[in-house]
């Protein structure tokens, strides 16, 4: 599965931001967003090594909450709501394509303007990535983990598009539970 190389990256970042910065459940346990350095480290990982301040992490947490609703709307079968949310984010975060060349890289496409904050830029980029997915008829590639006690999100980049879990950990939990259920019968 390859939507467009940069779109693929920002969709993966959207998934990681949602999973790092929204409360809920993860792999069978409650998940509470950590604070301070631990939260900054989680964001740094989601942003592929980019350092952030606590204020930027606060702003990104708001962005993550908006991004989560795109995944939950798709999972609930409400693609219209997901599309409307993406459109609102594209507008609010001033998403606009622009070719940039910096740090010795060749010309490449940025999905945000030149004067946004770090959180606005990532919000514009993640929203554009999700717009590419939904606009390409691939909304069913966006999902929320179907394992019990887990609501982490994922993007399904498998060839056949049958992914249902956030991780192999959750897949194995569900498999083990099914095995136990058969064993007690
Ligand atoms: Zn899961």
TrEMBL record:
The record places domain Zinc finger CGNR at 141-182
InterPro entries to which the protein is assigned, alphabetical: ABATE (IPR010852), ABATE_dom_sf (IPR023286), Znf_CGNR (IPR021005)
Judging by the UniProt lineage, the source's domain of life is Bacteria
**UniProt protein name:** Conserved protein containing a Zn-ribbon-like motif, possibly RNA-binding
Source organism of the structure: Thermostaphylospora chromogena
Classification from the root reads: Bacteria, Bacillati, Actinomycetota, Actinomycetes, Streptosporangiales
């Amino acid at each position: 599965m390859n939507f467009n190389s940069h779109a693929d990256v920002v969709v993966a970042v959207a998934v990681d931001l949602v999973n790092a910065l929204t409360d809920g459940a993860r792999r069978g346990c409650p998940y509470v967003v950590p604070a301070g350095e631990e939260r900054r480290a989680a964001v740094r990982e989601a942003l592929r090594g980019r350092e952030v301040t606590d204020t930027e992490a606060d702003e990104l947490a708001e962005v993550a909450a908006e991004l989560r609703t795109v995944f939950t709307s798709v999972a609930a079968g409400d693609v219209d709501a997901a599309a409307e949310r993406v459109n609102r984010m594209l507008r609010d975060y001033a998403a606009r394509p622009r070719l940039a060349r910096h740090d010795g890289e060749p010309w490449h496409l940025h999905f945000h303007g030149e004067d946004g904050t770090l959180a606005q830029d990532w919000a514009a980029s993640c929203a554009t990535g999700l717009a590419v997915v939904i606009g390409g008829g691939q909304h069913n590639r966006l999902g929320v983990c179907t394992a019990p006690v887990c609501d982490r999100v994922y993007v399904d980049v498998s060839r056949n598009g049958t992914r249902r879990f956030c991780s192999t950990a959750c897949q194995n939990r569900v498999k083990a539970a099914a095995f136990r259920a058969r064993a007690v019968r």
